[in-house]
Design goal:
The longest helix is centred in the middle third of the chain and has 31 residues. By secondary structure, the chain is α/β, with parallel strands linked by helices. It has a single domain, classed as 3-Layer(aba) Sandwich (Alkaline Phosphatase, subunit A). The chain has 14 helices and 21 strands.
Length: about 500
């Protein structure tokens, strides 16, 4: 059922949150204490857990302080990670919003669900995460703020309440209103088990300097306080280190603002008396390029700055992380290094909540994690406008292989514009790229050797995966044609997503 709901937007904003220290918010919310556990065998006679899924648009993992960023950009997510489980190497299934969010809500790869270009939406025959929770007796609630996750793209399917009033262009700030609405949804429906999805948008470009996270440097360069990607790319030949540092501060201020309101959301979980039975997950749909390869923005590429996203899980009901698989009582660290796929988050949340739905796609991440035998994880590159820039990626442990499909031939090279060897020299037109992420986290040295053991091993697996997608006829067929309103088309056009 899709229904636009009328919700009062309160005046409480980030200014009222400045006095909240991260630990005080989590303590108030009952989320500070013994290390929580993700327990897939929770006792059946306890109240059923609520589930809150928070997705934050355009957040690179390495720009959160809990992932090592030197600035304190995410104090409330950090504090949740200290008491929950942080996945250090979570891979988004696409480098932009639609394919990755569709993967989270279906458990499928982009080639399987078909929502991998702006003209495609999720098909109505897809099994959606909200439907699985609703079938298990949950009230399903959502408040979103990105055009690519609205009803026109099929994301309302399975939700009892779906609020998309805060979808806007890249200008403006929506985290306060998004949080107010999420709080009112919990107040209205919190007496019964609920699944609540909250999608924040503010870290997405345009980057707007937020006063809650003041930029400490005196900047007199060519960039204004509001930065759009088109403008940045036009100036990219005239940049210096101060310009890039200023951009990093502004982007960090957007993350910080969103984090403040995420903390306010957690605080209200305690206010409602729900903190002891509410699972919380925080992740993102993709990262962002900041001139690592002489470009700004996102889409098409599969380097770490675009596909390495944060993932934090918190379950307050038990005192440690226990796998329901073999060995039965293996405890895991609250920082998991094993690479995982964000598409499996839905399957994991269903299992943690005890929602019996064995048919939903994906893996249980608690059972998936085995540092002694890491499984391959995959991603697919595409663009909103569907040009021929398809890419496939596999990661197995420290090794990552990218296959460039439908690209220009290898012989086409451009003038080198950056120092050092690597993909900047050939504009990533090599058919394969192999990187050792332990020794080369910036992916600057392509180690692919057609005769090398690692290259051949990963190439065989990745090509087999691609053939399987092709063989089952699921490369682009399941996505249905999206029917967009004139307003939606103009919004996407103004953002550069459609021509």
């Amino acid at each position: 059922m899709f229904r636009a709901i009328a919700v009062r937007i309160g005046q409480g904003s980030a200014s009222a949150l400045r006095s909240f220290a991260p630990t005080s918010i989590l303590a108030t919310a009952g989320l500070v204490g013994a290390l929580p556990i993700l327990d897939c065998d929770a006792a059946v006679d306890t109240p059923r857990a609520n589930v809150i899924l928070v997705t934050i648009d355009t957040v690179r993992a390495d720009h959160l302080s809990c992932y090592g960023h030197p600035r304190r950009t995410s104090p409330h997510i950090d504090a949740l990670a200290e008491r929950g489980v942080l996945f250090e190497s979570c891979v988004a299934q696409g480098p932009w919003t639609l394919p990755t969010m569709a993967s989270i809500h279906t458990g499928l790869y982009p080639a399987e669900h078909g929502a991998n270009r702006s003209s495609n939406r999720l098909g109505s025959e897809q099994d959606m995460l909200a439907e699985a929770f609703r079938d298990a007796g949950y009230t399903t609630l959502a408040v979103i703020s990105n055009n690519f996750v609205n009803a026109s793209y099929g994301f309302n399917q399975g939700f009892d309440e779906f609020d998309q009033r805060y979808v806007q262009d890249h200008e403006g700030t929506s985290s306060p209103a998004i949080t107010d609405t999420a709080i009112e949804l919990m107040e209205t429906y919190g007496s019964d088990p609920f699944f609540l999805w909250v999608h924040y948008f503010d870290p997405h470009h345009d980057y707007i300097a937020q006063s809650e996270f003041p930029v400490p440097i005196e900047y007199a360069g060519p960039w204004p306080s509001t930065l759009d990607v088109g403008y940045l790319n036009r100036l990219r030949g005239d940049l210096n280190a101060t310009d890039l540092d200023y951009l990093s501060w502004v982007y960090g201020s957007e993350i910080y603002l969103t984090d403040l309101h995420f903390g306010r959301l957690l605080s209200h979980v305690e206010t409602l008396g729900l903190s002891d039975r509410t699972i919380v997950a925080v992740t993102s749909d993709h990262g962002e390029e900041f001139y690592e390869r002489q470009e700004f923005g996102h889409g098409k590429k599969l380097y770490e700055e675009l596909v390495h996203v944060p993932l934090v899980l918190f379950d307050p009901r038990t005192p440690g992380l226990i796998s329901s698989g073999a060995p039965k009582h293996r405890s895991l660290s609250n920082r998991v290094r094993t690479p995982v796929e964000v598409r499996s988050l839905g399957r994991t949340l269903l299992d943690l909540a005890g929602a019996d739905n064995a048919t939903f796609a994906g893996d249980n991440l608690v059972e998936f994690v085995d540092p002694d035998a890491p499984r391959p994880v995959y991603a697919e590159g595409s663009t909103a406008w569907g040009r021929n820039v398809r890419k496939h990626m596999i990661r197995e442990g420290r090794w990552k292989l990218i296959r460039n499909l439908e690209e220009a031939p290898q012989s086409r090279r451009r003038v080198k514009s950056g120092p050092g060897p690597g993909p900047d020299d050939t504009d990533a037109l090599e058919p394969y790229e192999l990187y050792d992420l332990d020794l080369d986290p910036g992916e600057k040295r392509n180690l692919y050797d057609p005769e090398g053991t690692t290259s051949k091993h990963l190439q065989v697996i990745l090509e087999a995966r691609g053939r399987a997608w092709e063989k089952t006829g699921q490369v682009r067929p399941k996505g249905q044609r999206a029917t967009l309103s004139r307003e939606e088309k103009e919004r996407l056009r103004s953002l550069g997503y459609i021509k």
